[in-house]
Design a protein that fits this description.
- This protein is 44% helix and 26% strand.
- It is an alpha+beta fold.
- The protein has one domain: Ribosomal Protein S8, Chain: A, domain 1 (2-Layer Sandwich), CATH 3.30.1370.
- The termini are far apart.
């Protein structure tokens, strides 16, 4: 992948607690890949702390679809519990 193509990719962070099934399903259903991102935490007593989080990476159009799908699936998951 060239640098120009890499610059046009976007991430949507995967919130902690998302079922593994969904993390596996989304890259199979959409043109995205799972990546790790180092994110700074901004909570009390954790200023400056960084954590590795998972994210889906893809084009803006795909990421918008993934975000909507993931939120819909999470709502359904929570409602059935």
């Amino acid at each position: 992948m060239t640098e120009a193509e890499e610059e046009q990719l976007f991430d949507v962070l995967i919130p902690p607690g998302v079922p593994q099934k969904l993390i596996i399903e989304i890259p199979q259903k959409f043109n995205v890949k799972v990546v790790e991102r180092l994110e700074p935490l901004k909570f009390a007593n954790m200023e400056g702390d960084k954590r590795e989080l998972l994210a889906f990476r893809g084009s803006l159009d795909e990421i918008k679809k993934v975000e909507k799908y993931m939120l819909d699936q999470l709502k359904a998951f929570v409602e059935e519990k």
